[in-house]
Amino acid sequence: MTAMTPYLHLPGTARDALTFYGEVFGADVQLHTFADFSRTDGPSDAIAHGELTGGPVTLFAADVAGDEAPLRCEGLRFALLGTADATTLRRWFAALSEDGEVLDELQQRPWGAWDGRVADRFGLEWLIGFEVDDAA
After folding, report:
1. For residue 19, which phi and psi values (nearest 5 degrees)?
2. What is the C-alpha to C-alpha distance for residues 105 and 115, in angstroms, rounded to an integer?
3. d(CA 107, CA 91)
4. What is the pLDDT of residues 7-29, one digit of tens each?
5. How far apart are CA 47 and CA 34, in angstroms?
6. What class, spelled out in words, does domain 78-134 have in CATH?
7. Where are the domains of the chain?
């Protein structure tokens, strides 16, 4: 691994979240249950470790166990600025918006670039944008 990778601890939604993100970003999803890791501190089918691989976004996630606190996102957003062509970024924005909330429409800004913000159905906030040259 050569870059920082977010690791989300979710309230029993790791399987759904990683599957969703895998579909959005065209990544493979690897899931390992508590049973796979011989863990007995939660449901055997809970996710002990999962990750997105082979796609443009790297992400780890697991279900919380015991008294672990689940992820709460305040003052954090994941920026996907210029990480793909405009068509792909528009598609990601639309997909992340499904059952989520558009916080700021994807739009052209006074300085010429395009960007917008969305909170997805799992509570993660995304900033998506691209330069005018990529807008076509």
Report:
1. -60, -45
2. 8
3. 14
4. 999 999 999 999 999 999 999 99
5. 6
6. alpha beta
7. 7-63, 78-134
pLDDT tens digits, 26-66: 999 999 999 999 999 999 999 999 999 999 999 999 999 98
Question: In 3-state terms, what secondary structure has residue 93?
Answer: helix
Write the single-letter amino acid at 98: E
Sorted by sequence, the CB contacts under 8 Å of residue 82 that are 6+ apart come out as 129, 130, 131, 134
Instruction: Supply the DSSP string of 30-58, one letter for each residue.
Output: EEEETTTTT--SS-TTSEEEEEEESSS--
Q: Report the interhelical angle of 14-25 vs 86-97 (nearest 10°).
A: 150
How many of the other CB atoms lie within 10 Å of CB of 24? 20
Six-digit token string for 95: 């997909």
CATH of segment(s) 7-63: 3.10.180.10
The encoded tokens of residue 68 equal: 């672990």
The span from the CA of 103 to the CA of 35, in Å, is 38
Handedness of CA 32, 35, 37, 42 (dihedral sign): positive
